User: Fold these one by one.
Assistant:
Number 1:
Amino acid sequence: MASQVAETRSDLSQQDAVVVRFAGDSGDGMQLTGGQFTLSTALAGNDLATFPDFPAEIRAPQGTLFGVSAFQINFGAREVDTAGDAPDVLVAMNPAALKVNLPALKPGGLVIVDTGEFSKRNLDKAKYDVSPLEDDTLAKFDVLKLDISAMTVEAVKPFGLGNKDALRCKNMWTLGLALWMFDRERGPLQDWLRTKFKNKPDIADANIAALDAGHAYGETAELAGPLRQVHLDPVPTAPGLYRTVTGAEAVSLGLVAGARLLQLPMFFGGYPITPASAILHHLAKLKEFNVTTFQAEDEIAAICAAIGASYAGSLGVTSSSGPGIALKGEAMGLGIMTELPLVIVNSQRGGPSTGLPTKTEQSDLYQAVYGRNGDAPMPVIAARSPSDAFECAIEACRIAVEYMTPVMLLTDGYIANASEPWLVPDPESYESTPVAFLQEKNAKNAEGDDELLPYKRNAKGARPWIKPGTPGLMHRIGGIEKAVDTGHIDYSPDNHQAMTDARMNKIANIAVADQNVCVGEAGGKLAVVGWGSTYGPVHQAVTRSRKKDLDVSHIHVRNIWPMPANLGDLLKSYDHVLVPEMNTGQFKTLLRDQFLVDATPLTKTSGQPFAIAELEEAIGKYFDGIPDNEGGQVEVNDDQLPSPLGDDA
Amino acid sequence: MNAPVKIETTLKDWETDQEVRWCPGCGDYAILKAVQRTLPQLGCDPSNTCFISGIGCSSRFPYYIESYGFHTIHGRAPAVATGVKLANPDLDVWLVTGDGDGLSIGGNHLMHVLRRNVNMQIMLFNNEIYGLTKGQYSPTSRPGTTSPSTPAGSIDRPTEPCAFALGAGARFVARGFDVSKKLPEVLKAAHAHKGAAFIEIFQNCIVYNKDVFNEFAAPKGAEDQQLWLEDGEPMLFAKGEKGITLNHNTLRLEVVDVVDGDWEAAKVIRHDVTNRAVAHMLVELPFGEFPKALGVLYDDPRPAFEEQVVEENRRLSEGKEPDLAALLAKGQTWSVEG
């Protein structure tokens, strides 16, 4: 015991990165605490990644296990790609938070508990027969028992708040302590509180007093017990201006930037759904950027209004999550058939059906690529991180307009809510490609007269964009099969063949950047091929494995459909391909289908992102199975693999 | 928003080169002609006019009008049209739907386009049957309608389209029928109304539901069963020999005889298009006991949704520079020195 504790202390101060998880009741303000701690971390120049994990219930009954809300942050004096595996420090504001989060804590890790909340009643709600503070539940850990409730009430006494309001300041007390622990400035926090409560100066002062008290507690308590201040140096990063950004913010900003680069007004049709609503909320505040937001009566109306807006000459955008995307399916087909630009953002969550609304998953890949009636090809782009979502949104807008097609942009609950430092891009560094709407008839008929052909294709296979209201270019479009060039109704066999081919070829020939290798080199023993938000853990796991001299490389695919032209050859240059994803192996199937490569799945559907250690272990097992690292039968993770690998070595 | 420029066109200018594919004798032909006749009278510009439809026989309409046209998907035309109007409020939008498209699969969208009051003319062709899918009963079919899906007769009660529209918050509700000479006047009133103008047009499906409206909408001889309403005029029908009065004790409308044209003596009431309570009664009048209320039943405009959105966008943008670089660098930032 004693040695473990000593080990922990020295560990924390010598680590180059630390993982902290704040956990409490959903009414305790843990997301806000985490958000503000993130900001102070960014201002201190550490690299960071966060993972908010909150319940689907807005006000779950207080003190219950399912009402626990947590926020995890990984920050360090080195590059940080993930929110971290096991927390080094767990702050538990009540017994339920302790019970839910303790299994994740690193052995020997530090637990800080608010003993003021460990009443019989709360212990019962958390289904503890005996207080975990009194038995050996916490024996493996380093424990700091503080009556945060009492100390907060004491600290805010001068402001005359009722007991309930006083206790609301608990999270600020806790944040104050955390700021002290990691040697952070309180100034920006105090400023933020004054701005937030500018109309309630008493509340602002009380919160600041609680913050200061928590900080002061750290200073005076350092002398004894397990508490010790830890300082992490700023990470050397590219020079420039930084801010933190969540995926939802980055998507919104990317859409605004994308529309502006095309010199188009943007129309955003949305319907409330977790975790996609944040995009609607962000864009609703950006009217001066020629953005119109529309909260529709349902998911179908949201996409249909966006299609109507695109038809009328705006860049139509809609956004949802899995179940809502399913409802939009028929309208996507209309967008594909009428060949109008449209961006569809899917912030994936756990499924099927309502599934896990607030948890993350990558299980809408089939839906994105294949999920429509008829042969309905559509480009799909997947963002790998919050900041990458900005670039992806710009690319989605560009492809939609350049190829006159709906485009799906995939993020997920993790990317949408997670935040990371972002080197603020210079809008001038992106190429502006203003849209040219068709202004006059674009062909000659047999008599030599001017004629309008709404479905005449350019070299890229795209038809012209013709705004209603343009003099003399009246024409009709619709979801019914259209004749080549004229767009008239035409069910004839040859025409349907020709139009199906034209739609397919247009999408297949979209120019996407060649696939690069993120870590490692082209060719070798093992490629770990990821997409979307698994980027962080895959990147770290491959980097660590390579430090152990394992011949493994990381490939991360952004263009899911169409895929980069060189991807097939690249994958075939490795002996084995391992595809980790948060579903039951959907991208693996796509890769097998497109390139006939023997891609092996590594799947996880727990609603939680991959841990670095899980991936590192899987990579390790692959090489463990190879005598002298020369190849042979590979065992990755038996219980996750549907079938053994082929004997190809 | 710019005031629409009136231009001169003829009926011919609104005809397309497309072969019309409705069944011979379908009421849709008459409606098409009525619309093509009305558009020149309104001074509409084909380049600035947009017909948007869903799915069904009625929804083929845009292909036959020489203007911009969008044949969308089943039930969703109101949502598409809302997007069109928000993106370009200056376009003159006509929505074409049917009883299945607008009240069954698209009931939700119809409700919301009316509630929001998006400025457009909504023509619902009611033939009380699914035509394009070969004759199943629809949400307006009368109980007992035998059809391929209800061989023993339908059971469920029909909805009343104009009552639905009023219930959804429509500010303009009118009725006409396919072969009526007065249909263009109804269309003109709808066009003059700023906001969502709902017009139920009884349409004879000669294949699957032939002549079901004949009691009031036969080409000839049903005039006595038509109560054509005009703002400020007494509610008279049957050549002025009958009228509608309000029983002040029961708060119900009643049919009264008018002797020698003295409708005031018979206490016949005048039609007030802004009287919402009476409009609710008119749309629900049981046919048989009462004539069919036709014409403009209700017309009391409110600001149109898209105008309010444009105005709000303007107000929220006022004094704000759309500076993208500043937007990207918003919030708490920090600099890393090179």
Note: Chain B has ten helices and twelve strands.
Number 2:
Amino acid sequence: MKKSRTLLQSGLIIAPIAAFAVSFLHGMALSIALLLIAIPTVLISALIPRRIPFAVRIVLYSVIGSLVYMPAAVLTANIVPQIAGGIYIPLLCTPLYLTVHRDDLFPHGHVLRSMIRHLIPACLFILAVGVIREILGSGSIIGHSLISAPPLPILLEPSGGLILLVIGLAACSANSRKEATDANRL
Amino acid sequence: MQIASDFVLLFVQNIIFQNLLGLPSAADTIQKGKGLLRLGVLTVLFCTIGSGALAVIRPLIPNRYEKLLFPLGIALICGILDLLLVLICRFSKRLNRIIMPVLHSAAFSSAVLGAVLLSTDYTHDIAVAFRFGFRTGLGYFIACLMLKAAVPLLYSDAMPKSIRGWKGMLLYAALLSMAAACLFP
């Protein structure tokens, strides 16, 4: 359970979520972009032989990630045309350069399965953050007004998003620890 | 006057981490336990050279595809600089010990990518791009110093277990960012 959240728990995709996922549509754009960038990048990067020195491999990973980013950005803009990705969509590439070689994250031979285990929880988490921030921060959901006076407009700021993320991740950690304790007891 | 306005801009734009851009690499480095200041210094280097070099090659990139091709340009520039530094480190054991543990985290960090992308929105001029990159990098370094000062407390028993360590650091960064937003509305 803990392993399936490692990409999130590592803190590497925190910035785009905290700064960009301020509504359901923003969260959806970020989730789609993450899937479209991460899956091809990790799959193609897995083909690079491990005997090549890491210093060279990481440069190749970054080139692959930036090449994959181009069609991914175009597709994301077509799927969610209301949202402009700005600088935050390309920022989703950088965590992959630093993690794609890690066997604990993407074990050799099980890359696709491990990606599903990492990316699905991450995308759901991003969507949940977007929905919570939209409801509490702007009092609406997908543009439809729910509350006339939003209770926490600070959540629309990066700092508010960061606080929400820390609370979410702390809850995840606490849950993981509880599950581990329960498993040990059994 | 220019220097004073530069410093104000530096703080407005960078406390903390220019819209949290550099937070992931700082969180990653803090999890490894050390090297935050080295990460800051290397980020200054990569931001400065990355912004300037991209401004140099920008006229060669077709206008229509600029936004799509910038990340590739940045990856190539930072990749070449990263490989050069790796080669330099081979000749010195001391440099190897100091630089290598954080080199790749700095070269391929979202701080550098974000700063260089922002510089493309800010200017077309090569000299201004170099200065913008340096300023952003310097702001990142100052932010690293502020985080470094708080690290011992963030890892102490005084912090609740669920947010001890890098999650506490995120919370601290959020509070600093909120304070900065109040200071520079």
Note: Chain B touches chain A through 49 residues (CB under 8 Å).
